[in-house]
Amino acid sequence: MNARSAVLPNLIVAGVNKAGTTSIFEYLARHPKVCVSSVKETCYFLPLRYKGGKMQDISRYESLFARCSKEKPIVMEATPGYFYGGANLATGIRDVIPNVKIVILLRDPAARCVSFFTFMKSMLLLDSQMSFASYVERCQSLSSHDLQQEKNNPYFGLEGGFYNKYIYDWFDVFGPNIKIIFFEDLKGSPRQVMEDLCAWLEINGDFFQSFDFSIANQTAYFKYRWLHGVAIAVNRSFENFFRRHPLVKQAIKKMYARFNLQAINKNEIDWGALRAQYRESNRELAEFLISRGYTKLPSWLV
Questions:
Q1: What angle in degrees, to the nearest 10, is found between the helix axes of 164-174 and 86-96?
Q2: What is the pLDDT of residues 235-287, one digit of tens each?
Q3: How many whole angstroms separate alpha carbon 124 and alpha carbon 232?
Q4: CATH superfamily label, 11-108+161-218+279-301
Q5: Ranges of the chain with pLDDT below 50
Q6: Integer angstrom CA distances of residue 247 from 154, 226, 252
């Protein structure tokens, strides 16, 4: 397949982590006019986020959409880590796919930070005994240079909520081809959000009128570390199969959750102090979004 005949995405969910990107991907994957990448997070442009990073040959990216054809007008991938690559990564996407549309999901940064922390634990990338307070201290100890190194991504939870540092570049590069969706709206009114998104994509949103919505990637903590390690490996190995058979994955996840997942204890978190860190960033973000026509903002931005 050469670059001229290859099917490449015209829709990318570019961010942010733990804000509903998996749900959007899973919902759209069911739509008859949408074809999705064989793995959700292709990470093709992700090297541009880190200093000195280089993308692989374009043929590798093309292969992830090999099953897609022009019969389905929307071709999509979702790599939430893209958002933090700023102008360099956004420009890299535009250079390869000039007319691509970009969806960015935003969530209360304090809640997102906690979810990111527990997710890093669930992926076995943090010490299971680390407290949230210790995690925040570790995040704060890293310099901007440190955070530009991929090895430190597990400690990007705090920094990842300062959306105002990164969002301007995306609008500069893509302008009207960007749509912002708030996690809180997706959680509270998923049908309305998906119908609005379909209207923006110029496909029929009636598909979601009788759709069974559920949270596709809810973070929880595990009881048995060894078993969770096995579950992670199985999920990675069979991701392509699970994408083609979502009901099978859903059934397995429910059984696994009953056996090895448990609720997250959030009593240790000083929510007031955490939210205070984002107050100024949220204020600037709200002003910017209002200037771009976003008048219905979630409570954490008001």
A1: 30
A2: 667 666 755 655 565 666 556 555 555 556 667 899 999 999 999 999 999 99
A3: 9
A4: P-loop containing nucleotide triphosphate hydrolases (3.40.50.300)
A5: 1-4
A6: 30, 25, 9
Q: Domain-by-domain residue ranges, the chain?
A: 11-108+161-218+279-301, 220-263
